[in-house]
Amino acid sequence: MQVLVTGAFGNVGESTLMALLEKGYYIRCFDLPTKRNEKTQKKMEEIGDFQTVWGDIRDYDAVSMAALNMETIIHLAAIIPPVSDINPDLAREVNVGGTSNLLKAAQEMESPPKFIYASSIATYGHCTGEGPPKTASDPQQATDPYTEHKIECEKLVKASDLPWTILRFGVVTPLSIGMDVDPIMFEIPLEQRIEFVHTRDIGLACANAVEVDAQEKILLLGGGESCRMTYRHFVSKMLDAMGIGMLPDSAFKEVTCDEDWFHTDWMDTEESQKILDFQKHDFEDFLEEYKELAGIKRYLAMLFRPLVRRRLLAKSPYYGQ
Fold this sequence. Notes:
Blueprint: E1 2-6, H1 11-23, E2 26-31, H2 35-45, E3 51-54, H3 60-67, E4 72-75, H4 83-86, H5 88-107, E5 114-120, H6 145-159, E6 164-169, E7 193-195, H7 199-208, E8 217-221, E9 228-230, H8 231-241, H9 270-276, H10 283-294, H11 296-303, H12 305-313
Parallel strand pairs: 1-2, 1-4, 2-3, 4-5, 5-6, 6-8
Antiparallel strand pairs: 7-9
């Protein structure tokens, strides 16, 4: 089996590459030649053999060359928030334009490949935490450029002549997340429902989707019932794992209307788990791995906790108002 992975050296890309290597596939990676990506590539080359094609997904010729002779394409490459909010035009060129390039290249091949597209729980719009977990048939609602792009790309994938599968990801936190968190963390209400899914489980799901019968299916990838929680639980556990400790409630957005809710929720993963068999880790597993990988940084954060907390609270647009 010959598999192309776009965005192969990002968070989910790395996990997917690891899972594919274990299966012994011929793997071609496509990504931008940034210093971070080149560092990840060298690290992954110590684990197994794969081919790398450096290029920009906005470049059709580069995309066409990367897709040549591939039997399956796992399309992960995308610009996500907050960059997609800061530069929506660039994000559209990459997210929608890049997907269009890849679909065109795939459809022009003599033997069209299976197309696995990475989408998101965020496409359901503001989720108030009412009702049962989200299903594949629930309506989608764009709330920002990123979700607008994902919804549009899903339509492009469905309209193609390719055998396709769409995977909507839950909350996939990188194991390598640093101590200098993004201000977007304060935009999520503490009572928001979220469903965590381990990055390695997402990678396994993407790899398993290569050979299973999931044609024309939309599958939701969350961690399952043991990974359903409120954002309060999630962020307090994460900040404890970082050695920082939970921040005051007043630092986080308060819900005054439906538009204040964030675009995360619990997910019905019964079908996806049955087909892809990917739920192997829970949130506690992630926290232990994170603390081990953080190493000395975690102890430094604990040592300078007051300073670190002040720096984080300064990023909140709500704290002190």
